[in-house]
Design brief:
Elements: H1 7-25, H2 32-39, H3 43-46, H4 53-76, H5 81-92, H6 97-115, H7 117-143, H8 153-173
Length: about 170
Amino acid sequence: MPKIVDHEAQRTKFAEAAMRLIARNGIEGVTMRAVAAEAGQSYGSLFHYFESKDDLLMHAVRHLTSLQTARVNEYTSQYSGLKALEHLLCDDAIVNVSSRDSWTVWLTFQYKVALDTSFADVHAEMIGGWLERIRSLLADATEAGEISADLDVESEAMAIWAYSSGVGQLGLLH
């Protein structure tokens, strides 16, 4: 009987292995062989799921973002307005080894964004999603009377995103 393989679980296993390697050794320490070994899988099996290290990094960042989105969705189902925004910003802060590792992976991705348009396109899509989430939470806060209706939501959303991004980057440095 043929073995049934959960392909998405395999992709996730490789992505998480790559994220651990990036957090430990930086992008320089990530080879396809090292990722396969870290995942406890064969080198050849990795190429059934990813064509290149860039493809793997792109998937790893999408996985990382999906984990954060799930956390944000959980507390935005419980809170709204400024309280939900506070939770979103706290989720972006470096508070433990796991969040530090996530920021290391994210900044590795940022490096690729600066050099490669396919990474830049994915980055723009991801940031667009976060900006939309922040705008929505600010709109909820406006409706609840938590902030002034005169607030320029677009400018504030961009400022909040830039602040959050900066806090994460500073967290890695200090």
